[in-house]
Amino acid sequence: MPSTKDFRDRIRSVSNTAKVTGAMQMIAASKMNRAQNMVQAGRPYADRIRDVLGDLAALAAKDEDAPTVDLLKVRPVKKTLVLLVTPDRGLAGALVGNLQRAAGKFIQETEGEVSIVAVGRKGERFVTRAGQDLVASFSVPDRPTLDDTIAVGRMLVDEYSSERVDRVVLIYAKFINTAVQEVTARQLLPVEPAQRDDDDVEKLEELDYIYEPSINDVLESLVPRYIETQVYHGILEAFASEHSARMIAMQNATDNANEIVEGLTLDLNKARQESITAELLDIVGGVAALEG
Q1: Residue 115 forms beta bridges with which residues?
Q2: How far apart are CA 226 and CA 232, in angstroms?
């Protein structure tokens, strides 16, 4: 059985680990609150621009004589570009593993060539280890702004507009709540028009909006902004998911460390009692020998 000194050393080591994980939990909680606020503030705009774009695309699709917007053209998919958004650091529970498994499954199930644009070091390393085609890698700060991510969106638009790829898909962790992060794969390009039936399209036409110079020109200007917004919001969702997952992981680690300390303390007390009992027996035995 280990000595009392061994138990004390283990208790000290685990206690120090609990202090570190507790501090990391508080830091992650602070960052999580800030990231959640950014996500909640950006969701209404991201959802609204998606709805507006869907309505415009539905109206444009009904006009067969109008030229098709480049970023709405559907081509046979021979090459797919994946924007993979992952954390830069680990210690986020199963989040990184789930993202990597989802990306690997998507690559295996996709017909044709697949290339990757990575945002985050974990995704970059995964793509390199897997031997996939890494087109570019980006890193963004903990408090990203639209200016920090606009280069990513413009690159995706350029790759699709130049017909180097036929489809662009975003894979990221969607923030649901503090305990739930959902790995999501969503097509960005070509932009899919909203599913509207004839009655809905007629209602849109009855609104009698005036588009200057035309719906297609508005779409030509709006779609790149839409892609930039969706990329930015996807990165915000990924950051909120990362900090939430890390906070939960560090909380679990701290709780487990405290439980280990309690168990080691109990074992230390047992070892001390056994040591004291053995010493008492030795003393009693010595006294008895002297008296005999």
Answers
A1: 81, 133
A2: 10
pLDDT tens per residue, range 84-104: 999 988 888 899 999 999 999
Tell me the two tokens of residue 162.
Answer: 């130049």
- CA end-to-end span of the chain, whole Å? 34
* Residue 64 and residue 183 in contact, taking contact as beta carbons nearer than 8 Å: no
Q: Which of 224, 215, 237, 230 is nearest to 50 (CA)?
A: 230
Write the single-letter amino acid at 51. D
Check: pTM over 0.70? Answer yes or no: yes
Neighbours of 193 (CB within 10 A): 17
Return the amino acid letter for 70: D
d(CA 157, CA 188): 10
Whole-number Å distance between alpha carbons of 223 and 69: 9
| Phi-psi category of residue 216: left, alpha or beta, with phi > 0 → left and psi -120 to 50 → alpha | alpha
* Mean pLDDT score across all residues of the chain: 85
Show the domains of the chain with their CATH numbers.
4-22+249-282 (1.10.287), 32-247 (3.40.1380.10)
Q: Give the separation between CA 69 and CA 80, rounded to whole angstroms.
A: 20
Question: Residue 1 has what pLDDT?
Answer: 64
- CA torsion sign for 130, 135, 138, 144 is negative
CA separation for the pair 64, 87 (Å, rounded): 44
- Residue for token pair 């509207």: 196
Q: Which amino acid is present at 169?
A: V
CB atoms under 10 Å from CB of 93, counted, come to 19
DSSP H helices, 184-214, are 198-206
